[in-house]
Amino acid sequence: FFFVFMAKTMMKPEKLTIAEKAWSKVGWLVAHHSWKVILVALLVVAGCGSGFARLEAESRPEKQWVPSGAPALEQKEYVDGTWSSTTRFNFFVAKCRQANCNILDPEYLQRLREKHLAVLDVVVDGDELKKERKYKAVDEALWAEHYSGNWSFNERRDINAKAKCFQAGPFCLERTVLDIFRQDDAIINNLTKAQVKQAINFWESQTQSCPVTIARADSPCVDASAWESQAHPLACQRYKTAQERSQCRSASNKYCDAVCPTACFVPPNAPPDFQCVPLAIGSCADNGCLTLRGFNNLQSSGNATGGGGAPDSAFAFEPFELKSVASSGEKGGGPSKDSNGQYESAAAVFSLYALADNRQTFGGGDSDPISEEWERKALCVLGVDTKNKGQSSEDCPADDLIEFSPNFQRSLGDEFGNAIVGDLAAVGVSYVVILVYLVINLSRFDTVHSNFFMSIITLVIVGASYAACMGLGAYFGLFNNQLTGNIPFLLLGLGVDDAFVLTSEFYRAAHMNPHNSPEDNIIITARYGGMSILITSATDALAFLVGSITRLPALSWFCAFAGLGVIFCFLLQVFFFLPFLAINARRAAANRYDMLCCFKSKVAHPISEESGCCLCLRCKSGKTSSMLRRVGLLITSKIGAAVTLLVFAGVLAMGVVGSVKIYKDFKLEWFFPDDSYVNVFFQDNADYFASGTPVTVYVRDIDYFKAQSELQDLHTYINTSKYVDKSESIENWYHDFVEASLDSDNATIKADLTASGIFGTRKVFYDALHEWYSDGGGARYRNDITWMDSNCGNSTRIAPSSSSRGWDVSCNPSLGINASRMRCTLGLEWTNLGQDRYNTMTALRSGVAKTMETVAPNSAFPYSFEFLYWEEVGIIDMELLQNLLICGGVIIVTVGIMIPHPRIAIWVIASIILSVVDLVGFMYWWGVTISGVSTIYILISVGLAVDYSAHIAHIFVVSYGSSAERSVAALERIGPSVFNAVVSTMLAVIVLSFSKSYVFRIFFKSLFLTVTLGGSHGLIFLPAVLSLFGGSKRPEVAETTEHVEVTSQANDEDEKLGKGGGKGHGPVTVSDDV
Q1: Alpha carbon 319 to chain centroid distance?
Q2: How far does Cα 538 stand from its chain's mean position?
Q3: Which is nearest to 513 in space by CA: 500, 501, 527, 499?
Q4: In terms of pTM, does the model score above 0.90?
Q5: End-to-end Cα distance, the chain
Q6: Of the candidates 196, 254, 303, 655, which lies 20 to 30 Å from 1027 by C-alpha distance?
Q7: pLDDT, tens only, 182-233
Q8: Quick check: helix, strand or coil at residue 877?
Q9: Are 18 and 518 in contact (CB under 8 A)?
Q10: DSSP labels for 22-85?
Q11: 81-102 CB burial, b ≥16 within 10 A, e <16
């Protein structure tokens, strides 16, 4: 009923339809007032484009790709606000350059130590950094508060440099294989292969931190009985009873007297309570002895380890797994073993440096300039020059012995930027290809009637449309982001297509009406060509604008910008291209050269008799029409139509299967170029150190004393959850505190604590916790607990009369804990594909929340920065489906209105929908997954697919004859425009097929499939099916009551507008068989 109603409304029994009469008036306006219309168009573009200056950029991923209302947004806001310092992880994998080597051999470990020291020597001068151009606009007060002064990884008092590392308690968070040797130059520089083997095999068996080396077989940490005959060999590892402690200290003192004799030095003018500094007398074979002597010189405190002077916090230690820092690549990880089951060799080692991430918002995004500059310099130490596309350079030479493959926090931005910059040349070439093709195919092979000038106007329209849509979008509050860079390509495809249609209609009118004035031919062009581009533009614009209701902000902004861009592109085709086409036609009528309009040709150049171009191109235009006519005759024959439908049925079958099988997935590493050093890291990491995603569980807004049972339940859940990798360390401060309390000799604690680890008294609980936190084994968890009384967390105050660090005596632990966090790692098998990651994230959230729901809702949650990307993966398929359904609805409505012939409109809609189904299906067969990036390109492809089919259908409607003849006529008339649009886009995207970046490869695949499948549906499938079901349209009086009088397609009907026309065919009555 809808289609019949629209047909009766728009198809009045007049010579011209309402739409055609309206377009004729538009054509008269632009033909007779060309310069005025152009001026108004430029003023509108300038007014809208003025908003470009106020356009704000948004580069933060959580603001672009996280669905509005997603839990990760609120959780990130809490984490950033509560935990003043988050973590920037910087990794590298190191391998020997020589084949079949053992990177655990002394020479390689010594080189690693050199590089490690060079990394620690990196210093960033924040005040000098502020002078760089990109930071000059940053607020001075903000910079002074967060970034001024010198910064290095560890605190360096000699140059007054603050520590930039992320601190796990009093320690900087770093991990390298050198930690096994205590980063001791005296040990590392004199290592033997036997000592290396001794250390790596003893490492994981340690239960206490020992100040001296474990690389020597006679070390008291390995065998205390070697120096104290009455001692148990593992006395220094057990270190529990008074006897074990005494035997360990005695053995250690004898060992140090032998390998590193020291003297006690007190600097002049030292405070009275200053403890002497141990200095080596002569050579020292183990610098750990200096640390040990320092412990022995400490005054005894209430929590001293029984006369040894060192607090328990000095022995807070848990050895990391050897496989986390060294691997041979064999199954199970870790170094390879000899016949006795002893570790002996490795092919790669892994290192980690964690920085405190102090991001502040400026310049449209979050940034930590100090961290980024430190990482740049550290990468240079490893042979990666960020200013040289990540390659080594003279300033950042590659190491001759070890190959480093790093992945630092800044690497994503650097390498993604390098990929985009590297592909800009390819993008530029693609634009040039389109321009060249546009000039050749818009042009007539004639020096007067060539259309080089109109080709330039087409490109100007694309640029003006982009500027206007971005500027107007800025006034509407839209944000610029990385996706908007795709809009010019969309507008280029649509603009070139529209230019071909309008130019084709103009030359058709000129050929059919050789005596018409240029103005009359422009009116005819607007009448038919304007309606054709309106159908496609209205469909595309509405589809994009309605699609902007998506929950993904970046996708919403893109759709809104794209919808506005399509509207501007359409308006400029009508009110900029057509006026210039009229001006160009008047120039040609005056026999003036194209682009050199001040000069006239001495030879007549009738438009129907092309004379060649530049004395070399003597071929005539129109060959594409002839080719498409032959194609049309072939596919509209009975056999041809049958074969065509059979072939497209097969294509559809593959498309449907692929559409069903396509899945969601997205990984950050896909953004790195193929030859990026980071991709080498990902491959090496997968080969040697594959592990899951680190996750932090945050607990907030609870009374920890009252929630002891729930905290134990939380520990049980984390340790039993199938999603957590049990082979990786699980760091839970509460569990370790309870274990230490159960093992405590403190009478008050023992009396208050139940056998299950529950404290009965609030004060005892918090006092015991703070004592363990400040000087006991909880030192490494100091960054995982924030106290209600901020003084309780003050471990950085330097006592006025001493160089030692102490605790504020005004601390009141009983006020409780403000927030805390625990850490674990998700299993690799649960984070493989996009849907796996989303399901794991939601299941873990539910499990953690359930354990704490009796305390307070939402009082605990797991969080990782990568959750921001996982949120997108969870809904991207539904967002894509929603946008495609919206597009489908818009296409049905607009095509139904613009082509009010049900038997034709239904096949146009089917052609477009089948194109999109095939596109999605073949994307699966080509290895493309559903992600935010591919969703954008699918939506762009829908717009292009509409163009390819709608143009053919519109001309089919106004053609007459049998259904087969109308199909052939449509192909012959508008087919060249569609064909040229397909080929120009194809040539442009083929250039991008050589891209090294994920974004442009997906762009190439999507657009290639679009022009192949969408173009073939428009040029082959639709004409074939319309030849069977489109109906005939005879130039004779119909016996049906639904008829309309129109002019012959070549006739100029402008008497009602008061304009004379050229000689043409008279009006005839035409029936449309419905």
Answers
A1: 36
A2: 31
A3: 527
A4: no
A5: 14
A6: 655
A7: 999 999 999 999 999 999 999 988 877 788 999 999 999 999 999 998 889 9
A8: helix
A9: no
A10: HHHHHHHHHHHSHHHHHHHHHHHHHHHHGGGGGPPB---HHHHTSPTT-HHHHHHHHHHHHSS-
A11: eebeebbbbbbbbbbbeeeebb
